[in-house]
């Protein structure tokens, strides 16, 4: 026996608007209560990652930064970064990401020169910072976030990240 296929309807169209809103609110409340568990990248995996070319993760980072540039990252406030070498070191993952801000946005930097600012933390702490689960000051004063080099540049980066309106990324 052959049954005709039913048209696919998204589940949200089957629910009344008020119920969709309630479900969305409950979902957001539950997500807000979630915390990133304490973890570190396993050492064998970090040793492998440290030996791999860093161009791919660096390109992923600069692509994300360029997508945010002008939208949630105010370019005029970042002018002091222009031409300056920046390095993100993900300590437990063996990643070292070198980049800079140029006229056309962020780009990978040649890793041979000493960067002006190095920011180091674990994967978990960078995630907590990005998700605003923890702030940079807390991580810095608990020595889980390290800044080396030009401290004025580090302060600029920290203040810019603190000022970002992450809600601008939410879909309407």
pLDDT average, as an integer?
A: 84
CATH class of one domain: Alpha Beta
Q: How do the helices and strands follow one another from N- to C-terminus?
A: HHHHEEEEHHEH
Supply the CATH superfamily name of one domain. SCP2 sterol-binding domain
Keywords: Ubiquinone biosynthesis
Family: Belongs to the UbiT family.
Pathway: Cofactor biosynthesis; ubiquinone biosynthesis
Protein name: Ubiquinone biosynthesis accessory factor UbiT
How does this structure look, described?
- This protein is of the alpha+beta class and 172 residues long.
- It has a domain at 54-166: SCP2 sterol-binding domain (Nonspecific Lipid-transfer Protein, Chain A, 2-Layer Sandwich).
- It contains 7 helices and 5 strands; from the N terminus they run ααααββββααβα.
- The chain has helices spanning 11-14, 17-33, 43-51, 55-68, 123-130, 136-141, 151-163; strands spanning 86-90, 95-102, 105-108, 117-121, 146-149.
- The termini are far apart.
- 15% of the residues are buried.
- Belongs to the UbiT family.
């Amino acid at each position: 026996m052959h049954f005709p296929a039913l048209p696919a309807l998204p589940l949200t169209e089957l629910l009344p608007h008020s119920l969709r809103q309630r479900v969305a609110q409950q979902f957001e409340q539950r997500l807000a209560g979630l915390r990133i568990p304490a973890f570190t990248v396993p050492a064998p995996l970090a040793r492998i990652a440290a030996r791999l070319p860093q161009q791919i993760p660096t390109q992923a980072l600069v692509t994300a930064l360029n997508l945010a540039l002008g939208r949630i990252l105010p370019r005029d406030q970042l002018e002091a970064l222009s031409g300056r070498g920046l390095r993100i070191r993900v300590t437990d993952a063996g990643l070292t990401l070198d980049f800079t801000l140029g006229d056309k946005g962020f780009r990978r930097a040649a890793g041979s020169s000493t960067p002006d600012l190095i920011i180091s933390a674990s994967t978990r702490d960078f995630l907590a910072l990005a998700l605003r689960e923890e702030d940079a000051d807390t991580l810095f004063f608990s020595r889980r976030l390290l800044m080396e080099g030009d401290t004025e540049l580090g302060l600029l980066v920290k203040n810019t990240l603190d000022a970002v309106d992450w809600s601008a990324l939410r879909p309407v």
